[in-house]
Amino acid sequence: MKKTIDAKFFSVISYTFTFVIALICFLPFWLIVIGSFTSESEIIARGYSLWPSEFSVEAYKMVFQLPERIFKAYGVSIFITVLGGGISLFITAMSAFVLMRKDFEFRNKIALFFYFPTIFSGGMIPSYILVVKYLNLKDNILALILPGLLGAWNIFLMRNFMKSIPDSIMESAKLDGANDFVIFVKFYLPLSGAGLATIGLFTALGYWNNWYNAMMYINKADLYPLQYLLYQMLTSITGLRDAASKAGLVVADMPDETFKMAMAVITTGPIILLYPFVQKYFVKGLTVGSVKG
């Protein structure tokens, strides 16, 4: 009886603590959403609140002034996220499959080529020379995909996850005459669903949030991803606001702070819709991949 009471008490404390932590994590995003629907003058005068005291959609009107540009940028971001994420996930899984093989003699030496650049990056100038001069990808959508295809941390996580798959599966498949590629595609990929979901989420977030590559390699407005387009719009608004202030003009109605909030809501929306579908795989994949080795 005492154990039952202790278990119930522990459950109440655990659920209460988890709810408080979840509420603390949710509160900043709620303030962002409410801030995006609050007038600029109200935010300047009273700051952020849990509910808009003066409702306004001026920030969203500013964002969607040219809706065709926004939707085109959305299309570019979705394209590079889906295509880049898919290719990256497949290459990452293949690399992890090779590096976790105990019968591959040079796996540690090759792994060094993956992990070493993570610690010592080549830097901006060598990357720019490689992409623009040698790969000739200036104003090419591949410049938004190729630089992010491989990540050492993703390979490491996926390799550790594949190590949790019993070796007997590979041995039995070889006895049946399957080659390495068939073993990888028909056995290891289906059994690595949790790991693939975890790495896929990391990769998709990386492509979706990346604006740096567009700033470096893209000048054509038609190839701007959503993040870089909104960054340019925010820079323009900030510049106009500063210029107006120096000229002594009234700038209270120019949506600067609320535009930032609206921009955050627009860019995080698709990721929030995606996360519930991979959440159960994400937790399992992250846990298994981090403890197996």
TrEMBL record:
The chain crosses the membrane at residues 12-33, 73-100, 112-135, 141-162, 183-208, 259-278. CDD domains: TM_PBP2. It comes from the Bacteria. InterPro entries: MetI-like, MetI-like_sf. The keyword Methyltransferase does not apply. It is found in: Cell membrane. It holds the Pfam family BPD_transp_1. Residues 74-278 form the ABC transmembrane type-1 domain. It is a multi-pass membrane protein. Keywords: Cell membrane, Membrane, Transmembrane, Transmembrane helix, Transport. Belongs to the binding-protein-dependent transport system permease family. PANTHER family: ABC TRANSPORTER PERMEASE PROTEIN MG189-RELATED-RELATED, POLYGALACTURONAN_RHAMNOGALACTURONAN TRANSPORT SYSTEM PERMEASE PROTEIN YTCP. This is Carbohydrate ABC transporter permease.
